[in-house]
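Section 5.1 Outputs to date
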Amino acid sequence: MTEMEAVLRRNLEEIRTLCDGTVQGLPYRLESCREDVPELTVSLQPEPWMQNVGGIMHGGVIAILCDNAMGMMSRWCAPGRLLHPTVDMQLRYFRPVPVDKRVFVRSRCRKSGRTLMYLEAAVWAEGQEAAVCAEAAATFFCTPLPAEGEP
C-alpha cells in the first residue's frame, strides 16, 4: 500500500465517522490512486433514494459525488488539518447515470497554489469507463482550521 493510498483510506474512514448520516458520509470505496498525476478513483453502489422520477441518478447526487471526490483529492494535495470548501464548481451532464450499476468517480488535481486548488472529476458506470456520464471542474479554497476557541 502506498503512502497516498494509506492517507486516502484514513481520510475516507474519518469522513465516514465525522459525517455519518450525511451525504458526505456516503459509503465510498477507494478503487485506485496515483501520486504522479495526482488522481484518485472512488466508487459507490447507488441506493434507491439517489434516483430521480425518471429512474436514473439525480443530478444533485452526481454533483455531490463529484464534489466529495474532488474534496478528498484536495486533502491529499494540501495535507494537514485544513478546511477545503468549494469556491466554484461547474458540472456537465452527458448521459444518464444508471442506478443499477456501481458508479465510479475519478478526481484529478490540475493545479495547487498557496490558497486555491483546481480539480476535475469524471463520472461513469461500471463497465463503461469510455462512456463518461458527467464531468466537473472546481476551485477549492485551502485554509488552516481555526485554533480551538477561535471563531
